[in-house]
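Re: How this chain folds, sequence and tokenised backbone to follow

Filed under: protein folding, tokenised backbone structure, sequence and structure records.

Contents: The amino acid chain and a row of whole-number tokens, matched residue for residue.

Body of memo: The sequence and its backbone structure tokens, given next.
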Amino acid sequence: MVSRLQRTLLGLLGAGAVALAVVATAPAATAPPKLAPIRATFDQAAFATVYTASATDADGDTLSMSWTFAAPTQDTGCKDFQVLSPTKAVWHHGDQDGCNHGLMGPRGHKGMVHWFVSDGAWTCTEAYDGTITGTGSRPACFKTVPVQSYACTGGQITLFDDSNGGGVSNGATGPTFTTKGQPYCLVSIRTYHWNDGHGAKPGTLGLSGSSTVGPLPATGSAGQGGAPNVNWQANVASGKTVVLRGTYTCQDSDHATWSQDQQSGGKGFCVVVVTRAVPQGKPAKAKASYRCTGGQLKLFDSSNGGGVSNGATGPTFTTKGQAYCLSQIVTYHWNDAKGATPGTLGLTGSSTAGPFKATGSAGQGGAPNVNWTASVPTTSSPVVLDGTYTCVDSDPATWSQDQQSGGKGFCTVYVTKAVKVAGAASGKKVKPKTTKPAKKKGKTGAAGGKKKSGKLGISASPDTGNPPLAVTFTLSSPKVVQWRVDFGDGKSVVRIGQPPATLAHTYAQRGDYRPRLTILPTPAGPAQSKATSVQVGTALMAFKAQPASGAAPLKVTFTLGTSVQNITTWSVDFGDGQRAAGAGKPPATVSHTYAKDGTYRATFAVKPGQYALVASFAQITVGAGTPPVLSLTASPTSGTHPLHVTFALGTHIPGKIVSWVLQFGDGQRAGGQGTPPATVSHTYAKKGTYGAYLVVAQQQQYGPVQYVVPRGGLAITVG
């Protein structure tokens, strides 16, 4: 928090200055520090200016000192400023240091250098404006006001978000927002740089207004269609507290590519994420104590059965207001079948979990260390999750991701329920509640009765179209205490109580989205969800069969559509051993006649380069067909330990199965080459709830395809 006096000081010094956060530790000090004026010496050989200054304190208090530098406004790239010691700094401003003297005119570069000194009771500053040899202005000192210190607590909150789903243009100005009198701890600032699909090299982000934040270095991530560096994000360094209270304006170092539209009033898209700031010195509530209970649950899973690439970023999830004990984190490192030496896994966000040492296990085809698993004890000193978290993997370079996961790493988080120990937070004894007998309610007729709870469901209308696409979602749900709709494009709505019958949302960008309705039936109960799909714009690959079923011989016309550019070759594998292929862009249609009854999986693939390949699929049923089967069942699914379970593996699918793995969920597995056996047995030795799943690798014309069943795991409960 910056005092009004410090804000006044910042206004006198200019936008480039950054004030020190000062807590008055010696308010009785009577004399301010004594500063010697800054002396500048120009070094022609190095084309640099060296600045020196010094300060003493008459009261003998410890001094804190900091240099800042405001880059020339005409050439903001010219900012090679280094602090050599507490009393010495240097500014390199030659052409080799990123400076463009053609921008500056005959005067040359003219930088503004500031030096701040504080002893806790006084804050003094001095400045030097120029590049040549000389002496700066006289120092100025101001009595500081004790600054309230804060503790950051609770989950992350979006304090400000002016982004929307409309089409965007470049050339934004900074939007302004207010904290409405409340203090908050800054977590991150995000801005958007679509820039006609080119993105922009990340620079810096910050805030100006009631106090100055930053500039903070930003990192970039890809957006729709893989456009690079579309999303910029700057995070507050771990362990540092930046408190916001007042009115602020978002700052972005590249206004020329900052996205805005008419709906935002020409203001740049900016999202400010915070946590609550609690003034220190007030009695804090005692930390709640929890005990872990029940079987293992899967809280979060961002993995899917698609082909994967390396280079993931951490996915984010929320506990939706519930507390859980962390038991296991699992990530995936296919890494072109080479796996990776296990490192560490953890979580960051509302609290920090880990890093925990991971162990590796083999994946498809025996690839080593593909699955990383970090187990967390839940008996002593459990790790309790309550809020919003991001998976952290020590090797993002080999962490698996794909387009379906949005470039986020495959991460699965297992937990058990965390039950708050009665009286732990307050230290008081809790009297047992007395439950009065419930009064019998009379029968209610149809007119006066309660609304009948419906089944959980979500549907979209329309579910296809070009952007901007306005979609109305129809929602149905049993009685709930909380609901959430994730639209699949990064936007979401969360509310207490029953969801509305309909909900509108506009998709601004092309893509295939999976909107999801999630409900919480009871405060302590598990969440339930249903999803649907919305396709906006031309799909990357479109592949339709007409007719898709019929008696043999069946002539099928396949419609081939693609927005992939620079295609070198194309192919259609009809699934019956026949195929069509060619060079260049594929034709609009391809026909094929199926002679025998059966169920076939046709594949349409294109190569936009020498190595890259994308594909789409269609299913054709001839005659009665042979429905494909890929399933995993178990008998029994529960019992006391040791529990002997027999798994039945159904794997009648088109194509050749090259390998299989059955993960039992307790760290053990079975697998091999070729088609798996009809049954596999396993004994669970310890109590717990385990998620078993089958992974099958199928060889197709363009390469291996991996399937996972069931997606959420088959629960085996061992008492």
